[in-house]
């Protein structure tokens, strides 16, 4: 096809040899299949900030690393320089997360480069060699659903062990290749340690999985894997091997029954005193 304008700089630099076709136009990006030498890859072109949606929310901005305080101030003020910086931080967030996660052994597309607002990465392919289907488009019976759910919880744990929370994990941001689920779409990924909303984000990601797989595995609907994983992480004991049950134990400290009985006795005495005085 004719090279789209946003991909021209990559063609000029020799990063892409040919643009084969448009794969998807999502809410945040347009994705193309491209040829680089004799490899087929995928190029994700980020939409301009004003065409994007909820990821602009403040919750996602918190904890983002910026190069220096001048950048941070400019971004806060929303100057033109600041907006350009914010855009760069946003665009680099996904490639940064992909590098960190690939190094941690998480199943994500191999990243190559982010250049001029375009992320060049591995094209995840399905059994037929074409672009892999999204989890949402894969027919599931209970056995396969259980396998994928377990595999994805493992991936979420590995991500968290690497300090990363996806922040928008759902059946639309998971592809399925011959070896199972692959996680994609990470520009909003957040730093587990640097954000006050990290726990809530993690629990939402994990409960999205339970809701999706719960359609064929109803027992997942009341599970508490998110809370369980977050508790282990906060206690500093989460590892890739942590056994998960989906249940969170009731608080460990036993209720102080004695104190409750004393409270009741005191209340009764007070009431008796009140009655005695008012009757006098
Ligand atoms: N590495 C990849 N390999 C194959 N398909 C991909 C890849 N990355 C994205 N896609 C396809 O493009 C779609 C949009 O990409 P995504 O990263 O989810 O961006 P958006 O923010 O627009 O949702 C995905 O749902 C998927 O179908
Ligand atoms: Mg997506």
From TrEMBL:
It catalyses: L-seryl-[protein] + ATP = O-phospho-L-seryl-[protein] + ADP + H(+); L-threonyl-[protein] + ATP = O-phospho-L-threonyl-[protein] + ADP + H(+). Pfam families: RIO1. It is an enzyme of class 2 (transferase). It comes from the Bacteria. PROSITE patterns: PROTEIN_KINASE_DOM, RIO1. Keywords: ATP-binding, Kinase, Magnesium, Metal-binding, Nucleotide-binding, Serine/threonine-protein kinase, Transferase. CDD domains: RIO1_like (cd05145). Its EC number is 2.7.11.1. The keyword Manganese does not apply. One of its GO terms (molecular function) is metal ion binding. Residues 17-280 form the Protein kinase domain. InterPro entries: Kinase-like_dom_sf, Prot_kin_PA4780, Prot_kinase_dom, RIO-type_Ser/Thr_kinase, RIO_dom, RIO_kinase, RIO_kinase_CS. Belongs to the protein kinase superfamily. RIO-type Ser/Thr kinase family. PANTHER family: SERINE/THREONINE-PROTEIN KINASE RIO1. NCBIfam families: prot_kin_PA4780. This is non-specific serine/threonine protein kinase.
